[in-house]
Amino acid sequence: MGAGNHGGFGATRGRTKTLLTLNLQFFGARVFEKGGYISKESFENHREFFLGKSVQRLKHEMAKQGYITKIENSVHPLSKARKLVVLNPSKERNVAVVHVSPGSKRHGETSYVRICTNDIGKFKVVTKMENYKTDGREKAIIYPARRK
Fold first, then answer.
1. Rounded to whole angstroms, how far apart are CA atoms 131 and 148?
2. Helix (H) or strand (E) holding 58
3. Cβ neighbours around 112 below 10 Å, total
4. So where are the chain's domains?
5. pLDDT tens, 84-140?
6. Global pTM?
7. Which of 59, 82, 86, 106 is deepest in the core (most CB within 10 A)?
């Protein structure tokens, strides 16, 4: 017998919150269309899929869609960002690079994920839009993370 989740001994208490298990493969299937393609509409509707995941996790999710990727560090010397570079681009798979940043002084210490595509441009999802700094030369369309 131990404390566990049943209430435990004496003054100890178990968990009172219920845990929600997310089916990440379901969300991955929604953001990626047929063959691993990402459209602007699917990205806008399911952009939170990329937030809060490690580069390894995103590599695994993209491999399910047929992507072969390589993990690289950022070219900036003090950056902690890492990127997934796609090694097998095609018409069906339009993602070229996924850049994951935990935050930096350059952008206001807020984390973001940038998706670069071959045909529809660059998209960036920012966790805290109010803290995000830009120099005005952004080439990506910036989307705030939606709060629920």
1. 19
2. helix 55-64
3. 26
4. 24-144
5. 999 988 888 899 999 898 876 665 567 888 899 999 999 988 887 766 667 777 788
6. 0.72
7. 86
Tens of pLDDT, residues 21-66: 444 444 455 788 888 888 899 888 888 888 888 899 999 999 999 9
Instruction: Write phi, then psi, for 137 (nearest 5 degrees).
Output: -105, 25
Side chain identity, residue 133? K
Q: What angle (nearest 5°) sits at the alpha carbon of residue 47, between those of residues 43 and 52?
A: 145
d(CA 39, CA 43): 6
Tell me how far apart the alpha carbons of residues 117 and 97 are, in angstroms, rounded to a whole number. Answer: 7
- 126 neighbors 101 (Cβ within 8 angstroms): no
CB count in 10 Å sphere of residue 64: 13
Q: Show the tokens assigned to 109.
A: 């210490």
What's the Rg (C-alpha) of the chain?
Answer: 19
- Calpha distance 29→40 (Å, rounded): 15
Helix, strand, coil abundance in the chain, percent, nearest 5: 25, 20, 55
